[in-house]
Amino acid sequence: MKVLKFGGTSVGKPERMQSVSQLITADNDQKIVVLSALSGTTNSLVEISQSLSEGKKEQAKQQIDKLENHYRTFCDELVKQEAGRASAKAVVDEHFEFLNIILKISFNEALNKDILAQGELLSTRLFCVYLEEAGIPAVLIPALDFMSIDEFEEPEIPKIKIKLATLIDQHKGQYIFITQGYICRNARGEVDNLKRGGSDYSASLIGAAIQASEVQIWTDIDGMHNNDPRVVKKTFPIEQLSFDEAAELAYFGAKILHPASIWPAQHFNIPVKLLNTMQPEARGTIITEMPNGNGVKAIAAKDGIIAIKIKSSRMLLAYGFLRKIFEIFEKYRTPIDMITTSEVAVSITIDNQQYLDQILKELQPFGTVELDHHQTIVSIVGNEVAATPSIITKLFAAMEEIPLRMISYGGSRHNISILINGQFKERTLQVLNKGLFGLE
């Protein structure tokens, strides 16, 4: 059984949704199809939710009406027969009735999660309407019936496995199952989500739960590229990556893949393919356990980084100092990306400033705290890159004119990371593309 995930751009237009139906019927393999919301929908729902949280109900009503009109037009182009149009209209009526009802309800975080879930609920139900009109047998299995997270927002794979198997067993003889990405239920049974980009995570978790033969992530680009094609003119898709290499790239900024999505597939050794809905014949990228040779595979950049430097003479020979520092970040559930130390100072980076004020307050007793916003981590990823001297030589030669804030080397054999001011990001990606790949 395969898992096929299609992102927002892959289902964002009626003709693309119709193309997806061709892709999922290209073979007779049993499969679970995971859909994101139509492109732009989640952003619109975030705006609606924001307006409601600020008490701007008239503005929220205008935003709801605009989104509803978009879906009405979408349905007119998606289905042509009278029965199909009636079904599509009923789906849109139901979900936008809900969005209009919430205008009369006091806003809270639980309601916010309900609002954000509407995009995936709409896309999957409308896709099923289209499949029915096209005569393609398929079963909708709601993600809210099996996808769950615990009180620490971690997926409950054993529970997911049991619930999903039960749902599939109820439809013996069916080959195509449709479900939502991104959305889930939390430990309180409320509607929740796996955060932005979570449809990749959903697909990987489903793949792990059913021990899939492979997980396919369909987007609008032909696989993972060696550099950011939005910044660098000449890039190329990578044919094969190891799980470790893909995890590094996803975490440090490669937009094609959600950072959390590698772990479930890696844990259960399920191959992941990154494919292009617009060019289904392209080979894309396959991610497996084994690396395909040594050397630099790709460069990724992660923006919005905050560098924190704690300087203290008391750090000299003081055991327990770092533990106390790390405990503060643990307390506020804020991951650290990079760290460098000296006898009198420690520098770390974070990408989440939700609890920054509280963290800084608790760091003050340890010494002088300095802060740098708008930083970027650039990561050079590939098998054994940190153990290959020639790569280090090329890296620093290429970076000769760019100021470095921090360097992380040796923490992983697959990754060398550097911290720079965000204003140098584009130039850095370009000079590294030339220095490491020979591409202008």
Automatic annotation (TrEMBL):
Record's keyword annotation contains Nucleotide-binding: yes
Q: Which intervals hold domain Aspartokinase ACT?
A: 378-434
Q: What is the lineage of its organism?
A: Bacteria, Pseudomonadati, Bacteroidota, Chitinophagia, Chitinophagales
List the residue ranges forming a coiled coil, or say none: 50-77
Q: Which keywords describe this protein according to UniProt?
A: Amino-acid biosynthesis, ATP-binding, Coiled coil, Kinase, Nucleotide-binding, Transferase
**PROSITE patterns per record:** ASPARTOKINASE (PS00324)
The protein's name: Aspartokinase
Q: Which Pfam families match?
A: AA_kinase, ACT_9
Please list the residues that bind substrate: 42, 120
Q: Which InterPro entries match?
A: AceGlu_kinase-like_sf, ACT-like_dom_sf, ACT_Aspartokinase, Asp/Glu/Uridylate_kinase, Asp_kin_monofn, Asp_kinase, AsparK_Bifunc_asparK/hSer_DH, Aspartate_kinase_CS
Establish whether keyword ATP-binding is in the entry: yes
Residues that, per the record, bind ATP: 5-8, 219-220, 230
- Alphabetical list of NCBIfam families matching this protein: asp_kinases
Gene Ontology annotations for the cellular component aspect, listed alphabetically: cytosol
